[in-house]
Write a structure and sequence with these properties.
About 40% of the residues lie in helices and about 15% in strands. It is α/β, with parallel strands linked by helices. Strands 4-11-10-9-8-5-6-7 form an 8-stranded mixed sheet, with helices on both faces. A 4-stranded antiparallel sheet has the order 12-13-16-15. The chain has a two-stranded antiparallel sheet with strand order 1-2. It is globular and about 60 Å long. The protein binds 4'-deoxy-4'-aminopyridoxal-5'-phosphate (PMP) and glutamine (GLN).
Length: about 400
């Protein structure tokens, strides 16, 4: 019997099949490897941290209070209001909590519902490359055509990797076929934040070609220098932008799967049409808990980011001392390191061996490229620093022991 359905066709179109079979995502595969070998997991981006106490307690209280049945499809009113207040207080963006906010099952479902609702067969969707792996699968499932703008790298005076996007290339990706540009800033896997000039260029081209802007801002609060700037805040952008975020990263609750969308009413209505058939509704007791998190004072968000920043510094400094060429990310969970100094030209092959050779799991950057073709980035690894200091320190010791005979 043939078990292939729309996902198989989409995965095939997105180059995600191996021997005709869908395989687990690179994150799931590498986490399984880590568990199997007892290796330290700097692969999948989930934190070792616990959520803020008030957030955890609010979920427990909600379960005890019996908030365990289907909440409204659009999300609990208190969460929609908290999202609205968060957007207003942090970014000066004003939304109607009844018609312009949709709670979703993580950013994952928000992205799925948005693309399935708004991309028509043959429409072009622009993303950066490398890109979060889900994008290619969703664009293919919606029958869209994926166009990418490369993130390229150079070396700075200190010998560090610097990852950049060329504004002219961003503009050049747009055409009359462009339906949507999917803006992931801060960016997974590189931690790159698009600067205001790049955001302005995206907006101008989106306006010129009457394209929609969809954002993926799940790392919005995990910034280590300048604050996150949502593209929706640029004059004229809000009406054509679907902004997506999630509680998973900000509050260290990746297993709760609570995300949200803000956009004008017509867009939310169209996206709700898809969401209602995907999950109908999202995790009842976690919604009031995320509302409590979003209401925390700015200092709580800054503390979360600065604690993570220390671990970014610990990991990047350690990798540099070992002899990797590293990029110091401006935001997010991940650092990129080049294994070429150790004669490793193929990070995908290295990441298969590294759990056994070093007892450390990393993700090859090529996993974020179409067909795994990473070009100049073929020797780059992605390493997560959202792990405990202890895990990072031990990983560095193990990587040093691995690297020493190879220098
Ligand atoms: N977008 C990006 C860029 C991500 O890194 C992730 C993974 N955390 C997601 C979306 C999915 O978010 P969620 O866990 O809220 O579904
Ligand atoms: N966002 C996480 C990462 O990039 C993984 C999410 C997932 O496993 N789908 O590592």
């Amino acid at each position: 019997m043939d078990f292939s359905g729309p996902w198989t066709r989409a995965s095939s179109a997105a180059g995600l099949l191996v021997d005709g079979q869908a395989r687990p995502t690179v994150f799931a595969r590498m986490s399984a490897r880590a568990a199997e070998l007892g290796a330290l997991n700097l692969g999948q981006g989930f934190p070792d941290d616990q959520p803020p106490q008030v957030v955890a307690e609010a979920a427990v209280s909600a379960i005890r209070a019996g908030r365990n049945q289907y909440p409204p499809g659009a999300g609990e009113a208190e969460l929609r209001e908290a999202i609205t207040r968060h957007q207003a207080d942090w970014y000066g963006l004003h939304w109607d909590p009844t018609h312009e906010v949709l709670v979703t099952t993580g950013a994952t479902e928000a992205l799925a519902a948005t693309l399935l609702a708004l991309v028509r067969p043959g429409d072009e969707v622009i993303t950066l490359e490398p890109f979060y792996d889900q994008y290619a699968a969703l664009i293919a499932l919606a029958g869209g055509v994926h166009r990418t703008v490369p993130v390229t790298s150079r070396t700075d005076d200190r010998g560090d990797l610097v990852l950049v996007v060329d504004e002219a290339e961003l503009r050049g990706a747009f055409s009359e076929r462009t339906r949507m540009v999917l803006v992931n800033s801060p960016h997974n896997p590189t931690g790159l934040m698009l600067w205001v000039g790049a955001l302005q260029a995206i907006l101008e081209e989106a306006e010129r070609h009457d394209a929609l802007i969809v954002t993926d801002e799940v790392y919005e609060h995990l910034t280590f220098g300048p604050a996150h700037l949502p593209i929706a805040t640029l004059p004229g952008a809000q009406e054509r932008t679907v902004s997506i975020s999630s509680a998973g990263k900000t509050f260290s609750v990746t297993g709760w799967k609570i995300g949200w969308i803000t956009a004008r009413r017509e867009l939310i209505t169209a996206i709700t049409g898809a969401k209602q058939w995907l999950t109908y509704t999202s995790g009842a007791p976690f919604q009031p808990a995320v509302a409590a998190g979003l209401a925390l004072p700015p200092s709580a968000f800054h503390d979360i980011a600065s604690d993570l920043r220390e671990r970014r510094d610990l990991l990047t400094k350690g990798l540099r001392e070992i002899g990797f060429r590293v990029s110091v990310p401006e935001a997010g969970y991940f650092a990129v390191a080049d294994a070429a100094p150790f004669g490793e030209a193929d990070a995908a092959a290295l990441c298969e061996r590294l759990p056994e050779e070093a007892g450390v799991v990393a993700i090859p950057l090529s996993a974020f490229y179409r067909g795994g073709r990473a070009g100049d980035a073929a020797s780059y690894l992605r390493l997560a620093f959202c792990k405990s200091r202890d895990t990072i320190e031990q990983s560095l010791e193990r990587l040093e022991a691995w690297a020493a005979p190879r220098r």
